[in-house]
Amino acid sequence: MQIRKEALPDYDTVYHVVQQAFKQAEHADGNEADLVTALRKGSAFIPELSLVAEIEGKIVGHIFFTKGQIADKTVLALAPLAVLPTYQGQGIGAALVNEGHRIARQLGYDYVIVLGGAYYQRFGYVSASSLGIAAPFEVPDEYFIAKKLNPHVALLG
């Protein structure tokens, strides 16, 4: 498996991957692929943090991080993480998350937030409120989670 930065010719394939990954997902609204398309056009888009996973030249996964603002601090938002259903459970999502975190640290980001569940705990995500981060909308505490990428920064909030 190879993980690399997404390129313009990948956009259609990534759209399909995201669509297929969320087709049967429990907490999907069906707009995840359109969200990626819209976010690419905005000022929060970070090309270095839109990554694809390839197996034998076929794109099988995608992860997308964008810039967000919490108080006076720029943070990253992870959304979405997508792996084709036939490739799920093989560590592709984990590899994308870990590589995204590595690049985010190199780029100087201190925090990542995600609206997610137990899957992300294996990467060190905890309730965002425990890091001093308040959700910008109504959401159960256990689903609005965050990871501190830099252990030396102060808590937000």
Estimated share of beta-strand residues: 25-35%
Which structural class fits the helix and strand makeup?
A: alpha+beta
The number of distinct structural domains comes to 1
Oligomerization state: single chain
What is the CATH top level name? Alpha Beta
What is the H level of CATH, i.e. the homologous superfamily?
A: Gcn5-related N-acetyltransferase (GNAT)
The total beta strand count reads 7
Shape label? globular
Strands of the widest sheet, in order across it, are 1-2-3-4-5-7-6
Reported CATH architecture: 3-Layer(aba) Sandwich
Keywords: Transferase
GO molecular function: acyltransferase activity, transferring groups other than amino-acyl groups
Domain N-acetyltransferase: 1-150
Protein name: N-acetyltransferase
In short:
This protein has 157 residues and is α+β, with helices and mostly antiparallel strands. The protein has 3 helices and 7 strands, in the order βααβββαβββ.
Provide structural commentary.
GO terms for molecular function: acyltransferase activity, transferring groups other than amino-acyl groups. InterPro entries: Acyl_CoA_acyltransferase (IPR016181), GNAT_dom (IPR000182). It holds the Pfam family Acetyltransf_1. The protein has a single domain (2-148), classed as Aminopeptidase. The protein is globular, with a radius of gyration of 15 Å. 23% of the residues lie in helices and 32% in strands. The chain has helices at residues 11-22, 32-40, 92-106, and strands at 2-5, 45-55, 58-70, 73-83, 111-115, 126-127, 144-148. It has a 7-stranded mixed beta sheet with strand order 1-2-3-4-5-7-6, sandwiched between helices.
